[in-house]
Amino acid sequence: MLIKLLYKFTQILIRSILRINGGVEVRGMENVPVEGGAIVAANHISYLDPPLLGAVISRKATFMARKGLFSIPVLGQAIKYAAIPVNRERTQPSTIKETVARLKGGELIVIFPEGRRSETGEMLKAKRGVGMIVGLSKVPVIPALIVGSDKVLPVDAKWLRRGRISVVFGRPIYYTPSVKEEGHVLHEETSERIMAAIKEMREQYADNYR
After folding, report:
1. pLDDT at residue 198 above 70?
2. Is 146 exposed, middle or buried (0-12, 13-18, 19+ CB in 10 A)?
3. Is the pTM of this model over 0.85?
4. Would you list the DSSP string of 100-156?
5. Does position 179 have pLDDT exceeding 50, yes or no?
6. With b meaning 16 or more CB within 10 Å and e meaning fewer, what string describes 109-139?
7. 207: part of which helix (H) or strand (E)?
8. 2 burial via Cβ count (<10 Å: 0-12, 13-18, 19+)
9. What is 2-209's CATH number, 2.70.150.10, 3.40.1130.10, 1.10.8.80, 3.40.1370.10?
């Protein structure tokens, strides 16, 4: 109970800081299911992205976080409630298994398909792991576009710079297995399909963010 209250308090605190710092515009929240297993797949342009998404998504979200973060004093203990450790160099089968189990158990998991932060703002190629997780769990995927977080917390910045951030949640993508393809090829295509949806959202909303 205490951990849940701390999670809610942290959400409110982050939202308040971002509101004072320039504001956060959120669109498409109705596309995020209020219950049941689901994946929110977003582009990754700043270290601010995980707390940002955790703050704007009303229900509790679980993140796939870099394993090294769990060894940092205080922070490591704090994120255990809302994150799954991931070896960024090579995703372990146990990580995939735990993630799929949590999704089937009804959790909402936030994944950055690119696997790491883009330092240029351009979207990177999606890792195959996200496609594998989708294929095994068969839960809906909600593509999410983040704009402006890289200006508010740029590379190597020590604190927030004033600016407005936008987060757009797209329509869910449902897993559609192919009887003709399987294994690595299907996982890669699923990952690419998710990234393509995020890129399409960026093109669709580009004029609004210039």
Report:
1. yes
2. buried
3. yes
4. HHHHHTT-EEEE-TTSS--SSSSPPPPPHHHHHHHHHH---EEEEEEESHHHHS-TT
5. no
6. bbbbbbbebbeeeebbebbbbbbbbbbbbeb
7. none
8. exposed
9. 3.40.1130.10
